[in-house]
């Protein structure tokens, strides 16, 4: 193997080791060797290299390794300089490139009990919706909100239901908490929400939840499409597109893999 090939191989192994330790926690050389398909001597050599840089540290008593202080320092610096909006932007652009419909990132504000459209990437279509950013909106209405609400703890869902008014676009009301819960159970089953004209008259919304490193829902990623431009056959394709990019964004935020979709309802 050439020097360049050896360097690329080493980098790949280092990345695999760091990813494994970040996702699984403390590990031994035996476990690491089995998980990554590397011989123990290679794992030992890579871990020694990383330990010298402070990226991992050895627990002599347990004969194991865990992420080190330099790894934490670098992670904190990245989080300081890159917010969710910036991180989400490429994912929004990828969705628009694939379907040419407006894609929006919504973020949940727990203290206020509202959500906002935090970032968007517009369609090139002449007929599209102008979404106001950073304006408080109800969580119980629209695909953008319901894809968040479905994965909140039950106690929080009930609190938000009790504070919910009529749908902004139609004036529709939620008849009961049980009726809302039935809708949200379907959202969890599918892994995305689909609504017609609840927040914006004449708009079809398709959104999927976005999770953080704790596995908690923090927002949603979705598309808003004029109803005259979408056929029933398009809904499944758009849902798959939205869900795959919401999951990719969640992984970029450090969410557990596999994500808690769609069958694990979050309870209080």
TrEMBL record:
PROSITE patterns: HTH_ICLR (PS51077), ICLR_ED (PS51078). The keyword Protein biosynthesis does not apply. Keywords: DNA-binding, Transcription, Transcription regulation. Residues 70-255 form the IclR-ED domain. GO terms for molecular function: DNA binding; DNA-binding transcription factor activity. CDD domains: HTH_ARSR. PANTHER family: HELIX-TURN-HELIX TRANSCRIPTIONAL REGULATOR, ICLR FAMILY, HTH-TYPE TRANSCRIPTIONAL REPRESSOR ALLR. This is IclR family transcriptional regulator. It comes from Xanthobacter tagetidis.
């Amino acid at each position: 193997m050439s020097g360049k090939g050896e360097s690329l191989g080493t980098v790949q192994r280092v990345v695999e080791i760091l990813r494994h330790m970040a996702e699984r926690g403390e590990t031994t050389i035996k476990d690491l060797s089995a998980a990554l398909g590397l011989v123990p001597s290679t794992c030992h050599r890579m871990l020694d290299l990383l330990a010298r840089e402070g990226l991992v540290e050895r627990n002599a008593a347990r004969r194991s390794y865990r992420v080190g202080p330099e790894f934490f320092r670098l992670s904190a610096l990245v989080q300081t300089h890159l917010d969710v909006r910036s991180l989400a932007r490429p994912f929004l652009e990828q969705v628009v490139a694939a379907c040419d419909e407006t894609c929006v990132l919504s973020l949940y504000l727990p203290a206020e009990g509202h959500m906002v459209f935090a970032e968007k990437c517009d369609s090139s279509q002449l007929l599209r919706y102008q979404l106001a950013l950073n304006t408080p909106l109800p969580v119980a209405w629209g695909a953008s909100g319901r894809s968040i609400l479905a994965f909140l703890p039950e106690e929080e869902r009930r609190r938000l239901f009790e504070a919910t008014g009529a749908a902004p676009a139609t004036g529709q009301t939620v008849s009961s908490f049980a009726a809302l819960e039935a809708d949200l159970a379907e959202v969890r089953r599918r892994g995305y929400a689909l609504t017609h004209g609840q927040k914006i008259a004449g708009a079809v919304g398709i959104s999927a939840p976005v999770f953080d490193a704790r596995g908690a829902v923090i927002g949603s990623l979705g598309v808003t499409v004029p109803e005259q431009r979408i056929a029933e056959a398009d809904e499944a394709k758009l849902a798959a597109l939205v869900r795959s990019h919401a999951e990719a964004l969640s992984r970029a935020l450090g969410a557990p893999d596999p994500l808690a979709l769609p069958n694990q309802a979050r309870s209080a």
